[in-house]
């Protein structure tokens, strides 16, 4: 089986995000440029995406507040993520932003950026010249680059082309990505990151607690779509999620399931989104939340005190 079903998970994530944005779960002024199709999803799916986006954004904000304008972001398996543009809207200035994904995905993203002036204008504004190849985009501080993350040599070359500096505080984001990559490749990548960057944070959002009936059904659904879950062993529980950072040279790691993450969101914000759609199946939402987590691993001591409180 090739990598196409893995790349297709990006279409699914982007469609779900667009659907939830359309209903008002959170604001994203750019996702509609990347996704035309909206399919109505169940309320628990929308709430799940809300918690995912809020939870990941929380650590991104904390990282940027601490690291300041020296911050660099490397978004691994970024798909059609709109974070770069959302940060621009907030007036955030950082030193470098790199998105990496399979060349098939980045070439589609580059095409959308070229086609939609508001996306391109945001890059021009700060970054001046924008250079495109069929799969890559380079500008002053935004880069969208095609790479197979299993190929460390290619990864190094791409980060070099993007002028990422190893001594600047660097945030790595992997949102539902590592589960598709064999553990030995993920380990190699984490080892390279921990031995190369002096200070930084890695945010990983993905499955956990998979060894029960609900987990079996969830994984069965993904496999039925042809997705090989090559990295599933590390998703066994929160401990295995943390261990992979500890075993690959990170200074420390913490992990929370999405029940904890959801309850850390301000009550007013939770009340607001809970009114958007009536949720019949509370139990199903809790089960879904129990099977996903956010894990952070840090390098150096600058980010060791981060917690989920939003
Ligand atoms: C579920 S999507 C998530 C996209 C984005 N992170 C988000 O949360 O919206 C997984 C992404 O990881 C990418 N991916 C998985 N394995 C990869 C690999 N070996 N190299 C590059 N990208 C990969 C896929 O192409 C896809 O875009």
Give an overview of the whole structure.
A hairpin with a 4-residue loop joins strand 3 (130-132) and strand 4. The chain has one domain: Rossmann fold (3-Layer(aba) Sandwich). It has 13 helices and nine strands. 48% of the residues lie in helices and 16% in strands. It is α/β, with parallel strands linked by helices and 310 residues long. The protein starts with a helix and ends in an 11-residue tail after the last strand. Bound molecules: S-adenosylmethionine.
Give short descriptive properties of this protein.
310 residues, 48% helix, binds S-adenosylmethionine, Rossmann fold, alpha/beta, 9-stranded mixed beta sheet
Task: Give the structure's gist in a few sentences.
Helices cover 48% and strands 16% of the residues. With 310 residues, the chain is α/β, with parallel strands linked by helices. Bound molecules: S-adenosylmethionine.
Write out the strand line-up for the largest beta sheet, numbering strands in chain order. Answer: 3-4-5-2-1-6-7-9-8
Bound molecules: S-adenosylmethionine
Whole-number radius of gyration? 18 Å
Largest sheet properties: 9 strands, mixed
Portion in strands? 15-25%
What structural class results from the helix and strand content?
alpha/beta
CATH class membership: Alpha Beta
| Span between termini | 41 Å
Q: Quick one: CATH superfamily?
A: Vaccinia Virus protein VP39
- Predict the CATH topology: Rossmann fold
CATH hierarchy: architecture: 3-Layer(aba) Sandwich
Order of helices and strands: HHHEHEHHEEEHEHEHHEHHHE
Q: Percent of residues in helical segments?
A: 40-55%
Q: What are the low-pLDDT stretches, counting only 5+ consecutive residues below 50?
A: none
Number of extended strands: 9
- What is the averaged pLDDT score? 95
- What number of domains? 1
Total helices: the number is 13
């Amino acid at each position: 089986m090739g990598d196409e079903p893995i790349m297709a998970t990006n279409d699914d994530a982007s469609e779900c995000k667009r659907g939830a944005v359309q209903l008002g779960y959170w604001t994203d002024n750019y996702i509609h440029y990347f996704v035309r199709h909206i399919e109505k999803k169940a309320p628990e799916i929308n709430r799940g995406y809300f918690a995912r986006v809020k939870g990941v954004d929380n650590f991104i904000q904390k990282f940027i507040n601490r690291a300041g304008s020296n911050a660099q972001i490397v978004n691994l398996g970024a798909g059609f993520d709109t974070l770069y543009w959302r940060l621009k809207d907030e007036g955030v200035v950082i030193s470098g932003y790199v998105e990496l994904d399979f060349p098939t995905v980045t070439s589609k993203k580059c095409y959308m950026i070229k086609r939609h002036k508001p996306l391109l204008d945001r890059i021009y504004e700060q970054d001046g010249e924008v250079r495109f190849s069929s799969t890559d985009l380079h500008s002053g501080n935004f880069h969208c680059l095609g790479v197979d993350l299993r190929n460390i040599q290619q990864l190094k070359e791409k980060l070099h082309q993007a002028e990422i500096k190893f001594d600047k505080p660097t945030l790595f984001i992997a949102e539902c990505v590592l589960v598709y990559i064999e553990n030995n490749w993920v380990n190699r990548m984490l080892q390279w990151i921990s031995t190369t960057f002096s200070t930084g944070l890695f945010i990983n959002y993905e499955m956990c607690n998979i060894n029960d009936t609900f987990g079996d059904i969830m994984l069965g659904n993904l496999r039925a779509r042809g997705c090989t879950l090559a990295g599933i062993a590390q998703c066994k529980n929160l401990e295995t999620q943390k261990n992979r950072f500890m075993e690959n040279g990170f200074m420390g790691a913490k992990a929370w399931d999405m029940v904890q993450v959801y309850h850390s969101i301000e009550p007013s914000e939770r009340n607001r989104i809970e009114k958007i759609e009536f949720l019949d199946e509370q139990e199903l939402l809790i089960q879904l939340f129990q099977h996903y987590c956010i894990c952070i691993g840090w390098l150096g001591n600058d980010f060791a005190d981060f917690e989920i409180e939003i």
